[in-house]
Each structure stands twice: as structure tokens, then as C-alpha cells.
Amino acid sequence: MTVVKTSLRNFVAHKGRMALSAVAVLLSVAFVCGTLVFTDTVNTTFDKLFASTAADVTVSPESAGSDGQGPRTGRPETLPASAVRQVAKADGVKSAEGAVASTSVTVVNGDNKRMGSDDGAPTVAGNWTRGDLKSMEITSGHAPRGPTEVMVDADTADKHGLSLGDELRTIAVTGDISARISGIASFKVTNPGATVVYFDTATSQRKLLGKPDVYTHIAVTAEQGVSDKRLKQHVAGALGGADGPYKLQTAKETADSGREEIGSMLDVMKYAMLGFAGIAFLVGIFLIVNTFSMLVAQRTREIGLMRAIGSSRRQINRSVLVEALLLGTFGSILGVGAGVGLAVGLMQLMGAVGLELSTEDLTVAWTTPAVGLALGIVVTVVAAYIPARRAGKVSPMAALRDAGTPADGRAGWIRAGLGLALSGAGGTLLYLTTRADKASEGSLFLGGGVVLTLIGFIVVGPLLAGVVVRAISAVVLRMFGPVGRMAERNALRNPRRTGATGAALMIGLALVACLSVVGSSMVASATEELDKSVGADFIIQSGPSGPIVPGAEKALRAAPDIEHVTSYKMIEVELTSPDGKTETEELAAADPTYAEDLRRETVAGELGAAYGKNAMSVGDDYANRHGIRVGDTMTVAFKGGETAKLRIAAITSDETNVDKGAMYTNVTTAAQYLPADRVPPNLIMFAKAVDGKEDAAYAGLKDALAAYPQFTVQNQTDFKQDLKDEVGQLLNIVYGLLALAIIVAVLGVVNTLALSVVERTREIGLMRAIGLSRRQLRRMIRLESVVIALFGALLGLGLGMGWGTSAQKLLALEGLGVLEIPWTTIVAVFVASAFVGLLAALVPAFRAGRMNVLDAIATE
To answer: What is the CA radius of gyration of the chain?
Structure first.
């Protein structure tokens, strides 16, 4: 009980010094809890949606993908109306209703403005059925009654200012549907952001599916007392057994399937954010270790008195750990609350990109605060263990005779040797990464090298501080005369403390530098590859709602000042090579002009010959695996079509990043073996302008696609800039997440300086007494902060560039062979670190300047 009282008294007495450490714990716990609350809320939202929309049993074509669509056809797979009648006769069936749903659509208003999300949530078009009343209710107007009427969901209507009578155009592979809004329906549960439009059944079948009397799925409702599992068995029997051409799912199976699909997308985000939270925890450990080390050092005389009057080492150790327990508990409790706020902020942020989430579905499972509290408390106590153990080792007589914890020179040399050994081992692994022949092998070397060099630099930090700080000081501090020299000596006074403070900043900046090198190298490599390989003037890309529809293709081919337009389709096939092995692959079917639009090197044959009748090409990796040579014959089974014998006319080099591993054939060859409704639309298209009319052709293509806003026309400059922007946006997100770790590191600098000022109170008073001005004192502390920040930045940026350079060598094995160091970013981060140091020193320097000279001198 005495230990607890003493710890509580010390905690309250040093509450100001504990505050910044508590903030570090708070931020880290908040990130973990915010991530868990956010993902649980998303799961709750979709669980409610799936529960309200899933039928007791859903019947769909076996060949349909998870979204119900066909293989790159841009249209859903269908089942005949006769299947609905068969299902309706099965035992236990109360009702069976044929439904139509397509996600490969784009909805635009009268101004050709898209009504759907650019990314994230889908746009869904289908027929209005009785089953939709489970999840929707008509709040205005009425359901569509003919081909000129459409109903839209209320969220889309509110977002885009739509009202009854407004005209909407729905663009699909099978054609456009122009109709006026006859009704508006509201979701009974949260709509995660989908745009939904409804037509009458006949219009949906004819316009979305391309033929009457077909559906995409059947919604089956069970009679009273019939379980979904039993209903599924009855329906399967009515359709000819479980081995028929249909996929049957109960409501639970449908919901589980949807949850699994959503979960796989969320997992990437969830684990990435938890990874950054882990980095923040790691950085926070340095802050906590420094805080308790300095507090123990400042209380050495007090600890000696306690030992002299009978306190044991265990009691002293336990006293410090109880303080850490109080700190961890306080910071973690606040962190759990902040995490809920962070989750709400993430929900608002996701709303901006199309994923709408309601705070009504906010889910805080009991495990979330439990995990947050456990992590925060355990990390804090573990971080405080070394200072607590050091406090317990203080002997009473040594403590009463001299302030400060005992230094262990032998331990310092062991630490330095261990750090150098770990750094050397990590450097060796990074070197082996650059010499690896396979990416899988090199990634293991890279991971090991990153971990070992990071740990090594942390361990050897005190040794590096003595060298690096002197070097930085010679450049930065010498111009400030005696004040600069005092700042340098202060930074070097306790190398262990300086090393730990700098290491906290080093971790975040090392990751920033590594990712900057990797991102810049990817962009530079892709740009070089485009310059070398792409001969087309323009690239027309499909949008998130599916492939390029025939209407858009027709408009493109009619554009003026165009020499040629090239089709590019992806077709799923089963290839049987001459060695008898059969594999499912994708065959790129293109016009012969594609050989001009994309310059591919061949190791055998001519690529142009692959676009001849009944001919194709393969990549050299595939050819080497199967012993294929030019002139060999491949058996190609087109999915949904016939089987063909195609001659190998060319083997392309896979030493590329554009279309690596692609197999080519002519679009006319593919069309010869596929029914017309199984020939997929273009996934991408290319265009070449008439010489000298590139600008006019560019404008003409954009005008041609004005009615199809889901597709983009880019020249090579646009394409490169788009690639750069995409990588830049990804890096900015990562930098934003790393900012959490950097903020915690800055708090560590602030805390170190604040405690250092308290530790040197008497010294500061003496310096002021012999003539040091307030201004000079503040400058000295600011310069000390700057040199510590630059020390951490120099180590971090150097380490990160080493990681990034090694990682780029792995990318080179995948065709991204250009190494580019973003010196502008590196220099900017280094300079910004100096300003971070200045910012961190503002409060400690201000407090030091306000000290009363006589009171400071009188301090023991």
C-alpha cells in the first residue's frame, strides 16, 4: 500500500512531465481502437444490408461471378424464365420471383453528369420486385410502369438534386435507356453509397440483358415453418439436383459471401492502419523510456533516502512500474474515447469517396476497449521496466553522495558492439537483396535486412550520436559561437538519451524516405517503359462500371483526324500446350494495329504474324515452361464458345512491365469461335492521329466521348501524369498515417528537452548569473533541439534510402528497372526536420527563459 501511495504521489507531482508521454499512449491506442471501431461499423452496416436484401434462397447461374456478371462481357449471366416456374413448384416454396440486376452500368443526368460514385460503391440497375420491399420503400411517386419510367434511390436523388420528372440515361453494353423519374425509394437500412435505379421487368430484360424471358437470379421465399436449408434442398431437386447449372445459396450463405468479399477489401486497410499504429507504439516506447529514465535520474537522491530508511530494491522497482501503470491506464482510457472519435472521422472521410456510413450503425464491441487498454498498459509498463530496474540498482550511499544514476561503461561497449553487429548483418541482407535472382527470395532478404538494420541503428544510437551530432554541429552550430558550442555539449552530455530521442524520429523518416525512393522509381520506370513501348498517341480507358460500350466505340471510330483505332479485349480460355498441360488463361484479342500501338520485343517470330488467321503469340516465360516454339499448335477452348487450333506465330519477351506475359490473337479470330453475345467489349482502346493533327484528334476524341463520361481519353503526357498522381496519392495517404509516428517522436523531443531543462535548473541559474541572457538561453535550447532532430533525420533518411534502393532492385526483377532518388523530397524532409526541432523547443525554451536566477541557483 505504501508503494502505491508513493507512486501516486510521484505521478501527481510530475503530472506535467507525464502529460506528453500520456499523449503518445493516447494517440497510439486511439489509432488501434479507431481502426477496430471503423471496421466493425462497416461490417455492421453491410450485415444489416445483406440481411434485408437476401432472399430465403437465391438461385443464380453457376457461371456467374461474385457480382453476377459474366467473364468480361459487361453483361450479367442469365437463367431462363422456365427456371422460375420450376422453382415455384418445389415443396416448401411460398413464392419465387425472377429478378434482374446489373452492375456494369453508368447512370447520367440530362447534362451527362454521372450519378454514381467514381470509386467504391457500385451502380446497380434492375427490375422492381416484391422482394425489394424488404429493404426499400417508395417515398415519392410510383414504381416504373413502362420503358419510359425509372425509379431511383433517395440517397442518389438527394445527393444530385434529382426530382420526379427528371430524365436519366442508363448506359449499358446492350444499349442506352432514357427514362424519366417516376418514383423515389428510400433504403430501410443504411445505404453504403450504391446508386440504384429500377425499371419494369420487361425493360430490364430487353435493355440490360439483351433478350426477353431471362433473369439474373431467382428470389425464393419459404413457406411458414420451412427452414432455409430444407428449402434449398427442395429447390435443388426441382432444378435437377445439386450438379445442375445453378448456384443455390441460403440467406445466410448469401450474407456470408457478401461479408467475405467486403472483408477481404477491408482487411488490407485494417491491417495497414494497425501496422502504422504499431509503428506509433514503437516510437512511443522511446518517449516513455526517456521520460522514466530522466525522472529516475532526477530523483536519485530521493531514491537513496528511501533505500537508507529501509525500502528494498523490489519496492523501488515496483514504485516506478506502478507509475507506469497509472500512466498507461490514464492514456489508454483517453485513447479509447479518442479512437471512437477517430472512427467517426474515418466514416466521414470514406463518405467523400463514396462509402456512406451512418453513425447510427457505430459499433463498439467490448473487445475494442479491452484490446486498447491492454496494449496501452502493457506497452507502457514494458517500456518503463528498464528505467525501473535501473532505479532499483541505485545504492543508498552513492545516491546520497552524488545525483544521477550509475553509468555502466562495460554495458555501453557491449551495446555498441551488439548494435554494430546487428547493423552489419542487416546491411549484408540488404546487399543480398540486390543480388537476388527471384523476387520471392529477395523479399525475405529485404524483410530481414530492414528489421536488423532498424534494430541495429536503435541499439548503436548512443555511439552514432557522439559522431553524427559533432558532424552536424560543425556545420550548423558553429556560426552561433559559444551558444552553439553549449548546445552541442548539451546534446552530447547524455548520448543514450540523445540516441533514443533521435531514434524515435528516425523510424518515421526512414519509412518516408524508403517509400519515396520506391514510389519515384516506380513512376520513373513506368515512364521510361511507356516511352519505349507505347506507340499510340491516345489511350481510351474503361471506367469503374465496366468495359467500353459499343456506342462509345462507334463514336470513337467516327472521330475526325484519326489514322486508326485499335480494339483490345480480354477473353478467358483454356489453353492446352503441346506438352499436354491445360491451364486457364486470358487471351488478349486485338486489331493488327496493336503491333504498332505497343512495341513488344520478340524472341522468336514476328508479332504482326500473331494477328493472322488462326494464329497467336505467347510470352517467353510460358513458352519456356512448356517447351513451345514458333510453328507449334495450341488447343484453345474459348469459354462459352468453340475450341480452336491456333498456330504459334511469335514468342514475345517478358522483359517488360507493359503487358508482361500477355498472349495475343486477332479479334476476328476470337469472334470466329465465340457467339456474338459472348464476344466481350473492349477493355481498353488505342488511337493514332493523322501526322500533324494530334491536337485536333485529341479534341475530337474527347468530343466523341462527351456522352460517355465514364470513359477517359489520355495522350501519353496525360497517362504519365495520371500514373504519377496515383502513386503520389497513395504515398500521401501513407505519409499521413506516418505523421502519427512523427508526431509522437516530436512529443518525445519536447519531453526530453522539458525534463532536461528541469534537470539542469541549477546549471541554468549559474549561467544566467554569469551573464547569459534570456535570449541566448532560449537559443541554446532551440539549437540543442534542432541538432537532435537533424541527428534523427540524418539517420532515418540514410537508412530509408538504403531500404528503398534495395527494394527497387526487387522491382527491377518485375520490369521496373529505373532507380530514382527523389532528392527534392529528401532535402525538403531534412530541412523540415530542423523546423520540427525549433517547434519542439518552443515551450521548453520559453519556460527556461522565465526561470528566476536566484531560485534556480538555490535548487538542489
So the answer is: 34
pLDDT at site 183: 94
Alpha helices in 357-460 (DSSP H): 367-392, 396-401, 409-435, 439-459
Residues 470 and 517 in one domain: yes
> Does residue 353 lie within any of the structural domains?
yes
State the pLDDT at residue 321. 77
Q: How many CB atoms lie within 10 A of CB 507?
A: 27
**Could you tell me if 702 and 564 lie in one domain?**
yes
Q: Which three cell numbers stand for residue 86?
A: 420450376
Residue 399: other Cβ atoms inside 10 A? 23
DSSP codes joined into one string, 576-643: E-TTS-EEEEEEEEE-TTHHHHB---EEEE-GGGGGSTTEEEEEHHHHHHHT--TT-EEEEEETTS-E
Taking 70 as the pLDDT cut, the residues of the chain under it are 1-18, 20, 64-72, 118-120, 241-244, 294-312, 352-354, 388, 390-412, 543-545, 755, 758-759, 854-856, 858-860
Q: Which residue has the cell 501516486?
A: 8
- What residues pair up with 643 in beta bridges, in sequence order? 637
Model pTM?
A: 0.81
Instruction: Identify whether 859 is part of a domain.
Output: yes
DSSP reduced 3-state for 236: helix
Alpha carbons 375 and 277: distance in angstroms, whole number: 11
- Written as nine digits, the cell of 482 is 559559444
CA distance 790 to 787: 5
- Measure the CA–CA gap between 477 and 491, rounded to whole angstroms: 12
Say yes or no: 603 and 533 in one domain.
no
What percent helix, strand, coil does the chain show, rounded to 5?
A: 60, 15, 25
Its domain, for residue 154, covers 63-244
**H helices of 534-568, where?**
550-557
Q: Quick one: pLDDT at residue 404?
A: 46
d(CA 198, CA 184): 10
If one counts the domains in the chain, the total is 5
Whether residues 704 and 599 share a domain: the answer is yes
Tell me the per-residue pLDDT of 480-532, one tens digit each, with 9 for 90 and over. 888 888 888 888 887 887 887 888 888 888 888 888 898 888 888 888 878 88
Grouping H, G, I as helix, E, B as strand and the rest as coil, residue 220 is: strand
Indicate whether 249 belongs to any domain.
no
Domain limit, last residue, from 195, 213, 244: 244
| Separation of alpha carbons 631 and 619, rounded Å | 14
- DSSP bridge pairs for 76: 69
For 560, list phi and psi in degrees, rounded to 5.
-75, 160
Is 830 found in the same domain as 738?
yes
Asked if 474 and 761 touch (Cβ cutoff 8 Å), the reply is no
Give me the phi and psi of 207, to 5 degrees please.
-90, -30
3-state secondary structure of 57: strand
- In 173-208 the beta strands, taken as DSSP E runs, fall at 175-187, 195-199
**Model pLDDT, residue 406:** 46
Q: What is the pLDDT of residue 138?
A: 93
Could you give the dihedral angle defined by the CA atoms of residues 43, 48, 50 and 53, in that order, rounded to the nearest 10 degrees? -160
Same domain? 479 vs 607: no
Cell of 146: 413502362
> Phi/psi at 276 (nearest 5 deg)?
-70, -35
Please give the pLDDT value at position 774: 83
Q: What CA–CA distances, in Å, run from 507 to 67, 201, 283, 520, 564? A: 42, 59, 7, 20, 53
With CA atoms as reference, report the closest residue to 104 among 73, 78, 79, 132. Answer: 73
pLDDT of residue 297: 65
Instruction: Give the number of other CB atoms < 10 A from CB of residue 145.
Output: 11
Q: Which of 244, 275, 293 is the last residue of a domain?
A: 244
Cβ atoms of 433 and 806 within 8 Å: the answer is yes
Residue-wise DSSP of 402-414: SSSPPP-HHHHHH
Kindly state whether residues 100 and 231 are assigned to the same domain. yes
Shared domain for 701 and 843, answered yes or no, is no
Distance of CA 567 to the CA centre of its chain: 33
